[in-house]
Amino acid sequence: MEDIIEILFDKLVYSCYFEKQRVHEQFIGEHFLGFQISGETHAFYAEGSEEMIDNTVVLAKRNQLIRTTKYPSKEGKYQFVSIILDQEVLKQYALENKIVIDKRYSGNKVFFFESDVFFRSYFLSLVPYINKTKKATPKLADLKIREAIELLLQSNPDFKYLLFDFTEPYKIDLEEFMQQNYMFNVPVESLAKLTGRSLSSFKRDFTKTFKTSPKQWLRDKRLAEAYYLIKHKKRKPTDIYLDLGFENLSHFYFSFKQKFGVTTSEI
User: Fold this and answer.
1) Whole-prediction pTM value?
2) Which of helix, strand or coil describes residue 6?
3) Is 45 exposed, middle or buried, given 0-12, 13-18 or 19+ CB atoms closer than 10 A?
4) N or C: which end of the chain has fewer CB within 10 A?
5) In terms of pLDDT, which residue wins out, 128 or 214?
6) CB 5 within 8 A of CB 70
7) Which CATH superfamily is domain 174-266 in?
8) Hey, is 233 helix, strand or coil?
């Protein structure tokens, strides 16, 4: 069977897999609300990790990094559906409903919770679009997104501080951020944005903080962690190279030998 990833209407994304999928790092540029229909999603992010089983809802804040591994159910099928809650829609909603927040959001970046009857009914209402038995007009798609916002605020009024915080990332502690996110294999531009810096400012501050370039520091940091895991935790290179941000195994082996002068099997 063929794996499926579809954008069913402007901001509704449906994923279906029949084999385990290790998805590379994703930069979450907009808030999204997701629902695990079947199978499991193992998510890893700066604050920790979580295993999503069927009937789980997730709300993820914009501007962050996340890595997922997707496992089909015992019946052999993985299904996940998500609604993107972008800034344009949220700003219009806030304007129409006179929503003003008096403080900047600083809480968790990802929320996982079991679906209640309202959320489950909402996501089940999307099934006709998934099954292609119904086509969403732009107006109907907009209504479904607004319904998602209403459900979130109904379930937790404090979500307004997350959804309607339209400020851009401000400069955060660079060293702390890099120590938490070095294993994500994303462009330097994304790292700069997440720390509230322009690319030039990021590179300048990085050199001042670490006395080396981002590329060199990331390579050395990942290799040092690999050395520790292999030597002291008896981990296999094949099990860790992707999680440490290396794109392929051969590049990892080459970099390791170049850095330490020995192969992974020799330590």
Assistant:
1) 0.85
2) strand
3) buried
4) N
5) 214
6) no
7) Homeodomain-like (1.10.10.60)
8) coil
